[in-house]
Amino acid sequence: MGAPAFLPPPIGGMATRLAARDVRRAPRLPCCRPVVTTAEVLPSSPGPPPRRRVSTRPPALSRRHWLAASTATAAATVAGLLLPLEAAEAVEASGGSATGGAFAGGGASRQRRDELIFDTHSGSFLPPHPQQLLSRRVVVDGGHGLVGGSGTSIDPARVELVATAGGGTIPTVGPRVASVSPHSRIPAQIDRLVVVGETHTHPTHHRIQLDIIRALHDLSEAAAASGGSRRPVVVGLEQFHRQHTPHLDAYIAGTISLARLLALTDWHNTWGYPAALYTPLLSYCRAHRVRVVGLNAPGKLVAAVARGGLDSLPASVVPYLPEMDLGNQAHFARFAAKMAAMGGAAHHTGGDGGDGRGPPRFDPTVLRHYYEAETLWDEYMAESAAAVLEADPACRLVVLAGTAHVENRDGLPERVERRAGGRAFTVIPTSVRWTVTAGTSVPDIAAPMGRGGAIADWIWYSPREIDLV
Questions:
Q1: Which range among 135-139, 173-177, 415-419, 449-453 has the greatest average pLDDT?
Q2: How far is residue 52's CA from residue 329's CA, in Å, rounded to a whole number?
Q3: Using CA atoms, how far apart are residues 214 and 198, in angstroms rounded to an integer?
Q4: Which of 33, 39, 146, 283 measures 20 to 30 Å from 179, CA to CA?
Q5: Residue among 238, 267, 268, 176 nearest 403 (CA)
Q6: Predicted confidence (pLDDT) at residue 109 exceeds the cutoff of 50
C-alpha cells in the first residue's frame, strides 16, 4: 500500500501538493495551530516514563535587588560586548552600510523604547542592540558543528523501535545520556544555530526576529569584506512546511511575487495569521538574498496523530516520520499544564474521578495523542533544521518558531542539537507591563526569569500588544 496522500516524500524527495479538506476544530495546542480531533474513545497510550530533573535555578530576587544588581554590573557587561561609541556612530552616519570590520546598524541599532535584553548567564540587562551585542558572541571559525560540540549525546542502545497498530515501527529515543545546559556567568556564544521564539500575533516580536537576522547577516557580510570567513544566514520558518521550500527559493530569487508565494503555499490554511506580520521579514530576505526554508510538518500529518495517536498511523507512514523522543517528563508536564489551562471542555473530566467536581483535566488518551502530535511537530522541524545545517556546513541557521517550541530548550533547540551536535543560542521575546523607576523605564516584574540559561540565553523584554495601541 502506498503512503497516504497527505504525506510528503522523505528529505531530498520531490515536494507534494496538499489537497484541502474540511476539518473539525479542536482545542488549540500551545503553539496555536488548530488540529483535528475525534470523539471516539481510543485505547490509552502510556505516559512518558518518570524522569528526574534537578532544578539549578537560583532563588528569586526581589525587584529592588535585581534592579540594583543589574545596574551595578551592566557597565562591565556592556563594556565587553558593545562596539566603541565612535564605531557605532560611524555606522549610523554612513546610513548602516558595512565596510571593513564595521557592520550595518541602521534602524536596528537605535535604542528601542521599553525594551531590554536580559542575559540569563551574566544576570544583567543589556540595551536592545543586537548587532553590537552579537558581534562579540559570534564564533568566527567554529567548524562544522555548533559550539564546541558540547551538545546532547545519544547512546544508540537507547534507541527503540515502538510497534504501531499498522504493523510498522517508530524510532524513539529513551532517556538521554547527557544534556548540556550552561548554568554559568559566561555569555553563551553563537556559532551555527540561533532559535528565536515569538507570540505569533505580536508585531514587536517579529521586529525583534528581523533585528537578529539583520545583525547576523551584516556581521557575516562584514567578515567577508574584511577578508574573514563568511557564514551566510539561512532563515528557517515554522510558518511554512518543509515541502514549501522550493516556492520560498523562487520568491527569494525574485521569480515569483509575495502574493504568488502565499497562494502556492496556501498561507491562509497552512498558517492563518496575517501575512502582514511576516512581510517585513520576507521582504528583507528577498532584498538581501537571505535564503528562507520551511521547517514544519504537513498539517494533515500532525492532525492525524492528534486525532488517533502515533499508533493509529499505517505502516506505510513510518518511513516519513522523524526520530521521536517522547520520554522527556518535564516537557510533557509543561504541555499537560498548558492544555489544561487552555480548556477544551469536550475532552475534560472532573479532577476527582469524573464526577464533575474539582479542577478539570484532559482525558488521558486525548492528552497523550495531543502530546504525540506536539512532539512530532518539534521533531519534524528539528529534522528539517538539521538537514539544512548538514547540507550547507558554512551557513548559520536562524530558526523562528512559537515560544512554546523554544522555551526551556527541550522542545525544538535540544532536538536539533541531538541531530547536529553542539548547542543552540536561544532568544525568547517576552511582553510585560513597563514602569518608570528612577527616571528609567524598566519591566514591571518581580524578578527576571530564566537566570542561569535554563529557559533561554536571552529574555528580550518588550511592551505588551495592548500597550502598543
A1: 415-419
A2: 8
A3: 17
A4: 33
A5: 238
A6: no
* pLDDT tens digits along 317-346: 888 999 999 999 999 999 999 888 876 534
Give the list of residues 6+ apart from residue 182 with CB closer than 8 angstroms, or none: 121, 188, 423, 453
Burial of 116 (C-beta count, 10 Å sphere; 0-12/13-18/19+): buried
Q: How far apart (Å, rounded) are the C-alpha atoms in residues 226 and 191?
A: 19
**pTM higher than 0.85, yes or no?**
no
Question: Which residues, in sequence order, are CB contacts of 75 under 8 Å at separation 6+?
Answer: none
What backbone phi and psi angles, to 5 degrees, belong to 125? -90, 140
Q: Are 360 and 340 in contact (CB under 8 A)?
A: yes
Q: Grid coordinates standing for 94? A: 554612513
Strand pairing class (348-349; 361-362)? antiparallel
Strand 169-173 vs strand 159-163: parallel, antiparallel, or unpaired? antiparallel
Residues 119 and 184: beta-carbon distance below 8 Å: no
| Residue pointed to by grid coordinates 526554508 | 293
Provide the grid cell at 49: 516514563
